[in-house]
Prior knowledge:
Blueprint: H1 3-29, H2 42-47, H3 58-61, H4 79-92, H5 97-123, H6 130-145, H7 150-154, H8 159-177, H9 189-194, H10 204-216, H11 226-250, H12 262-281, H13 301-322, H14 327-345, H15 360-376, H16 384-411, H17 415-425, H18 430-442, H19 446-456, H20 464-476, H21 480-493, H22 498-510, H23 514-527, H24 532-546, H25 554-566, H26 570-583, H27 588-601, H28 604-617, H29 622-634
Amino acid sequence: MSEAQANVMRGKALAGLGAALLLASLIATYANHFHNTFHFDDAHTIVNNASIRELRNIPLFFRDATTFSSLPSNQSYRPLVSTLLAIDYRLAGGLHPFWFHLSIFALFIALVLLLAFFIDHLLERGATSSGNRWIALAAAAWFGLHAANADTINYIIASADVIAALGVIASFGVYSAFPRLRGYYLYVLPAAIAILAKPPAAIFAVLFAIYWLLFEQHKTRLAETRLQRIGQIIVPFLICGAMLWFVQHMTPRSWVAGAANARSYLITQPYVTSLYFKTFFWPTGLSADYDLNPFTTTDDPRFWTGFAFSVFFIAVAIAAAVFKKTRLIGFGLLWFLIALMPTSLFPLAEVMNDHRTFLPYVGLVIAIAGVASLLLRPGTNYNFFAKVVAGCTAVLLLSADGYATYQRNKVWKDEESLWYDVVQKGPLNGRGLMNYGNTLMAKGDYAGALDYFHRAEPLTPHYSVLLINLAIAEDATKQSSQAEQHFKEALRLAPSSPDSYTYYARYLLAHSRAEEARGFLQSAVELSPADLTARDLLAKANTQAVNQPAPQTPEYYLDLSLKFYGEERYAESIVACRRALDLRPGYAEAWNNICAASNKLGRYDEAVAACDQALRSKPDFELARNNLQYARQRQQPPQK
């Protein structure tokens, strides 16, 4: 064996040892997270979502986005995520978090190892050395052990972020590992497929364009035509753009991004970007639900702080990208900014969330690897002792990162530990106060729960979910009149939310008012057919209603619906009509009232369906025909 072959074998052995150490570190760090419970959006996408409970629904996930969530406003098109959840549910034999966490963790390990390979490829643009491999492994370890990323790995539905990042890195990996296949553009496929898990994966096209311009443009063969060279950049944009269009086309009109004011959201993002950057190097004060509110004006000094940071950061990134020695650093910094663009420019419900930095932080670890490679490259004046010191420092930093992540996993253990951490770090966080109150209510501490709910009320006065929880606690403490009033107020504020109907109906059932409950539950199931809670309660209400006295006449409920309509209580008007239809299924006037009330709520698809029913029963019903025409004029064109 020649000396060169021996060096290659030694390098492979060292790389294998480094990968094994990295894998062991990740397993040790996340060993305490596998039994952490479901949180946040896990409730409506996993716990209460009937669609993921059957593997036979997997083809349906790709045809019908309403299967993603039991809440209409959250039904985005993410068939890959729903498929993974269905497989996890089958393997777990139910709602056992271990299997859900295990699948995410396996994807996470694959991502970190692929990231190490990609960074090693970036570093090998110069002379190959075992030092580059260790730098790549250390950079990947920084990403894998970072405490902020624990919020993504512990949050089960955030598997969408893991799949999206894995797709982007896999595309770069395929491009790096299989140069002969580049002309077929197969390297775009992993990122394009990952868009079916989360649309921000489409940012690969922009990242790849920057990568190609910085590192590949000068390597272009003379035999390649100008069109072929341009195609290297254009084709990823076309493929990712087509996938984005398809996802948008498949997303139901009921889906809502959540931002109340787009301008306020946008002017807050420069400051948020500076906070994300700080967190990468100093991950303290992490919270699952930050209480940072959108800025209302650019006069806020934090806006100018963020603006100055962004301008300076962009200038440094571009300057670093211009020079060959610092090009890798510039690429990493540009990656960070570009990967933040989807969540920074598209207004979302919360202005800041740590799982949004999952892919952007890849750019910062690339920049760190570039700095390390620049300082430790062959030919520098660093002696062996200095390199040992650098290695020990890296081990200490990674150990501290791993310890912080291990502690962060404990915060995500259950709802009580998570929301206690939130309210400790954000005592003016209305949603945090409400959710911690929920954990107290779950333990039977209704007095403590009411205290937190009342503290949250002035902070979030028009929050229907808070009113529902407040009503539940009030009912448990024999304050029935206040409870019913808060249930009705929640229904008024959120007439399109199934929960507004479901929990009020549960209250009615508990007070032996099954006939009333049925109408609300029918509305809840119509809004969200996959809502297991509403379906179970409807079955219970139907059973109870059999043993109750005969209900009022259809005419009584029709008059009641008109009364509610006149009081602008449109959701309750619809419920009254449904009770009339229970007694007289072809009651045209009741269907017409449902149509009119649905028009007022902006639910034009339901309005059209109701008026169609009215006209089937009474073809010459002019009022229903007028309501139908109104609904169709405002109805968006149906998806093909």
